[in-house]
Design a protein that fits this description.
71 residues; mainly alpha; SMI1/KNR4-like; 3 helices; 2 strands; elongated
């Protein structure tokens, strides 16, 4: 599945990651309406699974940050 590496990263770095939890289809639709856009299906799957997702970079040097390649 496409989220396995991300799930592993979240599990291994709970102090660095904020995940609000998944959103319902109704909530995703409401967000699309408010923003006046239509999300691609991949984005909708991400929002349904994670909701809002944030990685803390406070106090980190650039070379310490996780890159897309590392994930």
């Amino acid at each position: 599945m496409m989220f396995e590496d991300l799930d592993k990263f979240i599990a291994e770095n709970p102090e660095e990651v904020l995940v609000t939890g998944g959103w319902t289809d109704d909530k995703v639709s409401e967000l699309e309406k408010q923003l006046g856009i239509a999300f691609r299906e991949e984005v909708k799957r991400f929002i349904r699974k994670y909701g809002v997702f944030c990685i803390s970079t406070i106090g980190r040097r650039q070379d310490e940050l996780v890159t897309k390649r590392q994930l």
